Hints:
Helix content of chain B: 25-40%
Mean pLDDT of chain B: 86
Number of helices of chain A: 13
CATH topology of the largest domain in chain B: Rossmann fold
Strand order of the largest sheet of chain B: 5-6-7-3-8-9
Largest sheet of chain B: 6 strands, mixed
Order of helices and strands of chain B: EEEHEHEHHHEHEHEEEHEEHEH
Oligomer: heterodimer
Mean pLDDT of chain A: 87
Shape of chain A: globular
Number of strands of chain A: 2
Low-confidence stretches of chain B: none
Number of domains of chain A: 1
Radius of gyration of chain B: 24 Å
Shape of chain B: elongated
CATH class of the largest domain in chain B: Alpha Beta
Strand content of chain A: under 5%
Strand order of the largest sheet of chain A: 1-2
Amino acid sequence: MLRLIQLELQKLWLNKASRVLIIISFILPFTVLILSSIKINFFGFFTLELGELGIFNFPIIWHITTFFAAQFKFFFAIVVVSMIGNEYSNKTLKQNLIDGLSKKEFILSKFYTIVFFSLCATVLIGLATFAIGMYYSSYTEASIIFREVDFLLAYFLKLVGFFSLCLFLGMLVKRSAFALGFLFILFISESIIYGLMKWLIDGNIADKIHDFFPLQSMWNLIEQPIQRIIMTKFPDNTDMVYDFALHWYEIVIVLGWTAIFVFLSLQLLKKRDL
Amino acid sequence: MEPILTISNLTKKFGYLTAVKNLTFTINKGNVYGILGPNGSGKSTTLGIVLNVVNKTQGDFHWFDGNISTHDALKKVGAIIERPNFYSYMTAEQNLKLVCRIKGVDHSKIDEKLAIVGLLDRKTHKFRTYSLGMKQRLAIASALLNDPEILILDEPTNGLDPQGIHQIRQIIKDIAANGTTILLASHLLDEVEKVCTHVVVLRKGEKLYSGRVDEMINSHGFFELKAEKHDELLGVLETHSNIEKTKVEGELITAFLNEPMSASEFNKLMFDRGILLSHLVKRKESLEEQFLQLTDTK
């Protein structure tokens, strides 16, 4: 396993474009996180300090940081898609197989790298969130700090699931740009199908089916936290209440998709003549 | 003899097109094999199948004694297919390190193999700065990293300039001299003739011949003759039982033998008949002529 990760990291790290994208995908969420956590003084008119809004309180901070950090996954998605596309266009995939890499090892080396990257991102976000939370949070009892730490797990699974989807699309169309296009089409068609289902059949059933769609199921892992922030400001408003917690079935659906994407990628590679 | 690669009844179909038809042959240790055939005869497809990048439709193949999976076997094989495929943004050394990781070989071999192909002084240069000849030589170095039991080369001199072709051939000969088995696919006949001891001839995916290069067709050679008494010479040739047929091109008469006969024997015979030859050469068909004969008649 170590050998396969080393192999892929060498390919990625020595490539300037993917190195830059990897660094960006790590640094950007942090910059945003840190910028938002410092006190900004607008030329003496007023000071903006997001920390005062209570969004850096435990436990809600886990929800907020993982949600916003997850929006930056697109940068690494480009890396994932291009690491497949390049192997096809340079025919290095063929050469790798001739040199004695099995097709399974090839897919696994990509998948392990995805897991490795997601793990790094999760650990870093976890540490940063913990540090910022300890600094700002009004509550610092251990039971409150770690109450919603499961959002980190959700974040990790969301990344792994999403990048596995990118891996599969990359294998399917072989070209990075087209694969990203496909991703966009998938995003749109999920909404269209959802809209059609709502219109044609009962809205409740449509919601349930929609939760099984790949992108929607990943979204469900970390629901948007905006509503929750507003909720904390207006605790009396019961219309605002929604279910933002992480459920076991949400995890199962995303894990299912991840397995399907990796398996299909391998089947595609096995069936193809290179 | 120890078999390295055994192919039996291998068939590959791309839709309606049959690229390889019921192919059977064996590669034994220590020989230099050529796979010969015109473009589109199934050479690369056959190599692709045994190298695990093309899926077979029917039939079977196994590496070595057959108790080893193909991808493990490939770690003992060195192969280059069509054009050199490397990561353009890596240096030669980094590319070879990657191959070492795949094959599970120690990095210490890299310098040794780069020296064999004469690229040691360029090892820190990026692959994309290499000329085609250098790329091809790097590919050979890469294929040699694991000290393979068999080296597979698919059209290794394709697109190279004469110096490049000469360099590659010299490297191949040196490697063969060390006792490494080589399988060389090519449509360049003199290339195969210069390097190979055994040959498999393919046409439209079918095997026409496999065996030693010099036994490809049953031929006793032919004489190229000139004489002042042109017509008398022709007359004698037509009645002689050792001569199968004759061909006339201007002054030059070509007489094909159907039984062994030495040039001096023939010269004496002519002298006895009162014909003085001004030109007498005994030759065997070149591989090219043999190949054309083989692919035409069937």
